[in-house]
Amino acid sequence: MRAFVADSTLVETECRERLKQIPASTRRRLSSYAKVIMTAILELSERHPQLKETPVVLATRHGDLHRTEKLLRELVRGEVLSPTQFVLSVNNAVLGQYSMAADNRQAMTTLSAGEQTYPLGWLEAVSQVQSETRQVLLVYADEVPPAVYSGQVHSPVRSFAHAVLLDRENGQKLILDRLVEKESQLQEDVWLVANGVQQMLDSCSGKVVKDYNGVRWSWHVA
Hints:
Layout: E1 2-11, H1 16-19, H2 24-27, H3 32-47, E2 56-59, H4 65-76, H5 83-88, H6 93-102, E3 108-111, H7 117-131, E4 135-142, E5 160-167, E6 172-180, H8 190-203, E7 207-212, E8 215-221
Parallel strand pairs: 2-3, 2-4
Antiparallel strand pairs: 1-5, 1-6, 4-5, 6-8, 7-8
C-alpha cells in the first residue's frame, strides 16, 4: 500500500508550553498518557493548521492502562468508582478530549490489535487516505505498562507517541508492505520500530522491517 507522509514527530514526554493551548478545565483531566498524545498532535498542528479539520486514527495496544489499573485496584478494595475517571479510561476518551479542545469534528477512529497494533494502525490510516479522505493523522501511543503486568507484557520499553500526517498526493512517498513468512526473525520492541520509522522519515531513506509470528511488515520510502 502506498501513501505520502506530509510530516511526522515522535515524542516521549509532554511539553507543558504546548499543553497550555488546551483549556485548563480539559488539561486538568489529562493523564500522562493523554498529555504525550496531545503534545505530539499539537506539535504537528503548529506546522499544519489544517489538522483541526483532519480525521484522526489512534492506535494503542494498552490505552490509558495506568488509569485503568488504578480503577481496578479501587474495585478490589470495594470502593465506588469515579464516573469521570471511568469515562476517561476508555480508548477513545483522549480523542474526545482532543476533538473538543481543537473543535475538530472530523472522524475519530481508535484501534487495538495486540502486538500488531502499530502496523495495523498504519494499515487503517493508509486505507482511509486511499479511499475516504485526502489527509489522515495517524497517532500510535503507549506507556510502559504498570509493574503488576510485568509477567504478561514488557512492551513498550519507553512511553511515547508517534504522530504521522498522511496525505493522498503530497509528501514523502511511503510503501507499507505485509508478507506472510514461514519463519520469523527476532521481534523488536514497538518503540524501536516506531523510532526506526521516524528516523527513516527524517533521513528520507531506508527501510524498517518488523516480524510478528510469521507476518512480516515493512515500511520504506520510495
